[in-house]
Design brief:
heterodimer; A: OB fold (Dihydrolipoamide Acetyltransferase, E2P); 2 domains; 5-stranded mixed barrel; about 25% strand; B: mainly alpha; two-stranded antiparallel sheet
Chain lengths: ~160, ~240
């Protein structure tokens, strides 16, 4: 095309000038986006993990979300039959949670959970709503009787 | 690439490449869907609902790939003024938006049984919804700037490049921030997904990608044909006027 012969006074071809200009503009744009994402790293999180709740407890009654793993052996149903109590942990801290209502089908001990609710004055998290959070592992149903470690072992061997 | 600068040459290639992509893509995508939906296993915790993955993940990938296509075409348009770049960007927009919408809809249908909710405003879901709105905005801008002559592709091209910033945000949203959506199961070279799920999924992604490529080629041919027809009408009108 005609532009290729279009040479600026400095001896630089116009399309090379555009290439450099655009590369610089893109670098600045990506830098700005990364800075914004970095600044948002706390605010954009959908929930707090137990370590954050324990280190900096939100004031009792303020609506927050708590996310983590349901601790093995901690799930208990209370005498009324619809209220459940369990512990959410992240390997660093543990937060006791109470919830009254129907739980999602993926909610089991050892799986991920996001609880919406508030902290009461006694340090127990009172959940109004529970969302199950599934992890990145996909395991066929045939392996369901194995423990997670065994299933991962089988997956490694069969891949 | 400059060999393709001549639309006639591009059309000669697209004429046989388009049905080839469409045909193979159709066979592979629906073969993979059949494999996953009817012969694949159910998941240990999620049960049968896991089968949505065979539509959801290819749609998410192509929604993002569509914008990467717009961004690459925009870069080519701005730097080299390649005559097909603006047309390629326009051809990517509608299929990209459709796959983004499919991803959001299937994700919502999946979220209800798996998480217990149709929608949450976490980083991944929100950034994907933003992508859909970016597509709408881009299409509106591209339509609006069509009337102006000369630099008609300049404004959408700049928008296309700036909007590409959202793509890494979508990808890293589940890594940077705590989110309801889980971290990626598949990354280069390793998979947290058993092979029973992985292979039909990869095949479905390949098939839908070929279908996407076929759609883009078909739309590029249609846009070029439209431009030729308009040019011919204009010439005819001029010769009749004299």
């Amino acid at each position: 095309m005609a532009q290729t012969a279009n040479v600026r006074p400095g001896g630089i071809k116009a399309k090379h000038q555009r290439l450099v200009l655009l590369a610089v503009a893109l670098a600045v744009l990506v830098g700005a986006a990364l800075l914004a994402a970095w600044a948002l790293r706390n605010q954009a999180s959908y929930f707090y993990v137990p370590a954050e709740i324990v280190a900096k407890p939100p004031e009792p009654g303020r609506a927050v979300r708590l996310g983590g793993m349901v601790a093995q052996g901690s799930l208990k149903t209370e005498a009324d039959g619809v209220t459940i109590a369990f512990v959410v942990e992240d390997g660093k801290a543990r937060v006791p949670v109470r919830f009254k209502g129907i739980v999602p089908s993926l909610f089991v001990e050892g799986s991920g959970v996001v609880a919406e609710g508030h902290l009461d004055s006694g340090g127990t998290f009172q959940a109004d709503n529970l969302l199950a959070k599934h992890d990145e592992n996909y395991v066929p149903r045939e392996m369901k009787d194995m423990s997670r470690e065994q299933a991962e072992q089988v997956m490694r061997e069969t891949k | 690439m400059h060999g393709l600068a001549n639309p006639a040459r591009f059309l000669r290639i697209a004429r046989w490449l388009m049905p080839l992509c469409m045909g193979i893509g159709f066979a592979v995508a629906f073969g993979a869907l059949g494999w996953g939906l009817f012969f694949g296993p159910a998941e240990r915790l999620q049960g049968e609902t896991v089968r949505i993955v065979y539509l959801h993940v290819p749609a998410a990938w192509l929604g993002m790939a569509g914008w990467m296509g717009i961004a690459a075409a925009s870069f080519t348009e701005l730097v080299w003024r390649h005559p097909l770049a603006g047309i390629a960007a326009r051809a990517c927009a509608v299929p990209g938006a459709v796959f983004t919408a499919v991803c959001l809809i299937t994700g919502s249908l999946w979220g209800r049984p798996a998480w217990g909710t149709w929608w949450v405003w976490d980083g991944r879901l929100t950034s994907m919804l933003v992508l859909l709105f970016l597509y709408f905005g881009w299409m509106a801008l591209s339509q609006a700037s069509e009337a102006a002559d000369g630099s008609q592709n300049r404004a959408p091209a700049i928008f296309g490049l700036v909007g590409a910033v959202n793509i890494p945000i979508i990808h890293y949203s589940v890594i940077w921030w705590n989110s309801q959506h889980q971290a990626p199961s598949i990354s280069l070279g390793k998979s947290a997904m058993a092979g029973d799920f992985l292979w039909p999924l990869l095949l479905a992604m390949l098939g839908f990608t070929l279908l996407f490529a076929g759609c883009v080629l078909a739309r590029m041919r249609a846009i070029l044909a439209n431009q030729q027809a308009e040019a011919r009408l204009r010439r005819k009108a001029l010769s009749e006027a004299w």
